[in-house]
Write a sequence for this structure.
């Protein structure tokens, strides 16, 4: 059932980092009820529901948050909740009558999680934006990319999900733990700019110490020949990350060369030459041939798997890192727990009269569900 069994979370439907935070909590056993709009908002990148994996493991309600009945139902649900997640621009839930003040008045132990890009305050708080904008202003985007080239957008993994949804989930869990001692809920202001900056704490420390040069010239950003990606004979890719001298020596030995022949590891003046030598070596064999020679050794080597290949990699297959749910291959819940293991995910479901009543019954009990059943059957809420 997962370690969060018994925890109840309300999710006001949004996109990106907010549903990711809700998914993380639901994957670990929390009961998450997602409140969708009656009419889709057409935000984000649309896709068929079964492939919108961030919405897995939810119970669903369709509620018009602008209606009085909708507001009343949400506040009734809040009374039974441990947490609430919303990802609107600052002030939206206040205008709906569902901001922190009325919700905490209904339930003083509630943890009210707010997910935004810019945060609840600041000159840009009301500005539109997406992942790329947020990681850009933190300085983090400037570190990502090849030397003398433009910074490279790293999907929306760094801002939306790592600096956003993951920090919201962590913050809400911390606030729920604190509530056990204080008996009081609170607001968690999770801003992607704050989370992304926090993720980069180590890099900012290295920058302050003068240990980071221009983009693409450093050990961990593709500047070093022993920490980079290389094309193989079959146009597939491998990577090496032999940072420590003993691992670099092992890589060179397994490639049939001495470190002097390929290039002394810490001789930055020789890095371009060493990289070209490694490029020629790795282009001489296929990815599978390099895997047979190097994978599992102390050379710190890995094949670069395509998304369609990842689930079949022997290590990930052995760990069941990916699972198939309703015909869709997807990552399994993480991390692992020795005793309270999470269940296999349930596929995303669209709100319906049946699912709405089931969700209310589980949340408010039979009597509570019956009080709303007539209105749900007639018009929704």
């Amino acid at each position: 059932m997962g370690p969060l069994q018994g925890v109840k979370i309300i999710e006001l439907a949004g996109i990106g980092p907010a549903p990711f935070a809700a998914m993380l909590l639901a994957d670990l056993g929390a009961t998450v009820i997602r409140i969708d709009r009656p009419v889709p908002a057409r935000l984000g990148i649309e896709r068929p529901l079964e492939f919108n994996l961030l919405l897995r493991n939810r119970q669903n309600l369709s509620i018009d948050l602008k209606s009085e009945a909708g507001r009343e139902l949400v506040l009734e649900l809040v009374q039974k909740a441990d947490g609430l997640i919303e990802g609107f621009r600052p002030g939206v839930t206040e205008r709906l009558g569902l901001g922190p003040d009325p919700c905490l008045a209904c339930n003083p132990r509630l943890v009210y999680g707010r997910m935004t890009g810019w945060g609840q305050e600041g000159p840009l708080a009301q500005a539109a934006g997406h992942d790329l904008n947020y990681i850009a202003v933190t300085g983090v985007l400037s570190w990502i990319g090849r030397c003398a080239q433009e910074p490279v957008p790293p999907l929306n993994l760094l801002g939306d999900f790592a600096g956003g949804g993951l920090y919201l989930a962590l913050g809400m869990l911390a606030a729920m733990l604190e509530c056990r001692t204080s008996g009081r809920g609170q607001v968690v202001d999770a801003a992607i700019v704050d989370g992304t900056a926090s993720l980069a704490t180590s890099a900012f420390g290295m920058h302050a110490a003068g240990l980071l040069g221009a983009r693409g010239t450093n050990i961990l950003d593709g500047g070093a020949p022993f920490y980079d990606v290389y094309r193989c004979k079959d146009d597939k890719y491998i990577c090496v990350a032999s940072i420590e001298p003993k691992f670099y020596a092992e890589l060179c030995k397994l490639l049939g060369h001495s470190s002097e022949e390929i290039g002394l590891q810490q001789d930055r003046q020789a890095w371009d030459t060493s990289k070209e030598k490694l490029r020629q070596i790795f282009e001489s064999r296929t990815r599978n041939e390099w895997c047979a020679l190097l994978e599992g050794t102390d050379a710190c080597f890995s094949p670069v798997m395509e998304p369609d290949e990842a689930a079949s990699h022997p290590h990930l297959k052995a760990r069941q890192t990916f699972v198939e749910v309703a015909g869709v291959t997807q990552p399994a819940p993480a991390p692992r727990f020795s005793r309270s293991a999470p269940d296999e995910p349930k596929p995303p479901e669209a709100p319906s009269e049946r699912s709405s009543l089931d969700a209310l019954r589980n949340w408010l009990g039979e009597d509570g569900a019956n009080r709303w059943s007539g209105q749900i059957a007639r018009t929704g809420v």
